[in-house]
Design brief:
The chain is α/β, with parallel strands linked by helices and about 200 residues long. It has one domain: 3-Layer(aba) Sandwich (Rossmann fold). Helix content is about 40%, strand content about 15%. α3 links the parallel β2 and β3. The longest helix is centred in the N-terminal third of the chain and has 14 residues.
Length: about 200
């Protein structure tokens, strides 16, 4: 089913690095705390937000998962925002593969690449899957009425970015997933803010 986004400007933040990110362990709906690097990445996101025009006009929402809330507290405090919790931007449920490492899921095959991570999440046994994730992201985006900062997760943000840009599944799976950065999306155009006062 086609979806055309005609809503307001968005700023998209992935949570900072967690202990399980560092271990190569799938989190999904489970949680692990931010590392020192993850907290530094959240502070960088806060500094980036301070450079964005009309930031005072933005609403802010956050996934209810702990790692996203911790990131939001750090990043959004830089611009005086308190986010509302929004279950529809929680990470995809990775079913039977949550808390397992990539090695445990795929074996020790040297052919595993970072791009395969999205496919693991989207095809996990007893997981949420592509279509259900897409449906809840469409519902979330359809309800937006004002510019919004969204603090969320790797796979969910790739789905949101894909919907905003009208991308297909293969293109969504290939999207990058940086931490410590901010994506700005307006009128279908995506801009990556990855350093203070600089767009790349």
């Amino acid at each position: 089913m086609s979806f055309r986004y005609t809503g307001p400007r968005l700023l998209l933040l992935r949570h900072g690095e967690t202990e399980w990110n560092r271990q190569g362990r799938l989190q999904g709906r489970k949680n692990s705390p931010l590392t020192d690097l993850g907290r530094a990445q959240a502070r960088q996101q806060g500094e980036i937000l301070k450079q964005i025009s009309s930031i005072e006009c933005f609403d802010a929402v956050c996934s209810p998962l702990g790692r996203a809330q911790e990131t939001a507290r750090i990043a959004l405090s830089a611009v005086g925002k308190l986010p509302r919790l929004e279950a529809r931007v929680a990470e995809i449920n990775a079913g039977d593969w949550e808390a397992k490492t990539f090695g445990e899921i795929c074996g020790s095959a040297p052919s595993f690449h970072d791009k395969d991570l999205m496919r693991l999440f989207l095809t996990a046994p007893n997981g949420e899957g592509f279509d259900a994730l897409r449906a809840r992201c469409v519902a979330f985006l359809s309800d937006l009425e004002q510019p919004t900062i969204v603090v969320s997760h790797s796979v969910t943000l790739c789905m949101i970015r894909g919907l905003l840009r009208d991308l297909g599944r293969t293109e969504i799976e290939a999207l990058d997933r940086p931490q410590g950065a901010v994506y700005e999306v307006a009128a279908g155009v995506e801009t990556l803010w990855s350093a203070i006062s600089a767009r790349v």
